[in-house]
Amino acid sequence: MSKETSIKVPTADMVTPQNQEIFKSLESALGFVPNLYAAMAHSKNALGNFLTHANGATSFSKKEKEVIDLAVSNVNNCSYCQAAHTAIAKMNGFTDEQALELRKGKASWDTKLNTLGKISRAMSENRGNLSKEMKAEFFAAGYNEENLIDLVVAVGIITTTNFMHNVTGVEVDFPAVPEV
Predict the structure, then answer these.
(1) How far apart are alpha carbons 96 and 177 in whole angstroms?
(2) Cα 31 to chain centroid, rounded
(3) Contact (CB, 8 A) for 169 and 5
(4) Cβ–Cβ < 8 Å for 83, 174
(5) What are the residue boundaries of the structural domains of the chain, listed by start?
(6) Read out DSSP for 129-153?
(7) Cα end-to-end distance, the chain, whole Å
(8) Closest CA to 128 of 150, 89, 155, 92
(9) Least buried of 2, 62, 69, 130, by fewest C-beta within 10 Å?
């Protein structure tokens, strides 16, 4: 998306008092307000609603969440989320090489994570449709029904941010990552 068609990233003085409070919390926790979150503040409700949903409890570990986020972000061709979640994956113990592989929906070093990446990617590519064989593979890897439901929610959350960036075209404010 060209700069001419990008959505302007609002500053704190341009958003509602409720969003200003969220900006303060983000700055305190992250050291900055990510451009993608700031763009959500064009709506008086979207940012708060999104963060409540995204920060909800899940049966997945932080590492498993990054497996999902990277695989789905790659399917949706979201440069922002691939960069952001590569940085977060590294903070959660993955190497650059592993993060690159996760973006392809693979984890050659871990059978369970490999299955999660493969299923996450397939779920995104097939709009939520999974074959009986894929579900059986998911369960055989050690995941359960709770995990399957949480996976649907996790794919929905990351798809929201993927679409948000693909629509807004805001500048990526995380370290650049190579194309896959």
Answers:
(1) 9
(2) 19
(3) yes
(4) yes
(5) 3-54, 62-165
(6) ---HHHHHHHHHTT--HHHHHHHHH
(7) 19
(8) 155
(9) 2
Taking the model in full, what pTM does it have? 0.94
Structure-block tokens of residue 126: 């097939």
Both structure tokens of 121 = 């990617």
Extract the tokens encoding 79. 């440069």
The runs of H, that is alpha helices, within the chain are: 17-30, 35-40, 46-54, 62-75, 79-91, 96-103, 111-125, 132-140, 145-168
pLDDT tens digits, one per residue of 69-121: 999 999 999 999 999 999 999 999 999 999 999 999 999 999 999 999 999 99
When the candidates are 3.30.230.10, 1.20.1290.10, 3.30.43.10, 3.10.20.580, the CATH number that belongs to 62-165 is 1.20.1290.10
In the numeric block, which tokens belong to residue 98?
């592993």
The count of other CB atoms within 10 Å of the CB of residue 56 is 10
Distance (Å, whole) CA 174 – CA 83: 6
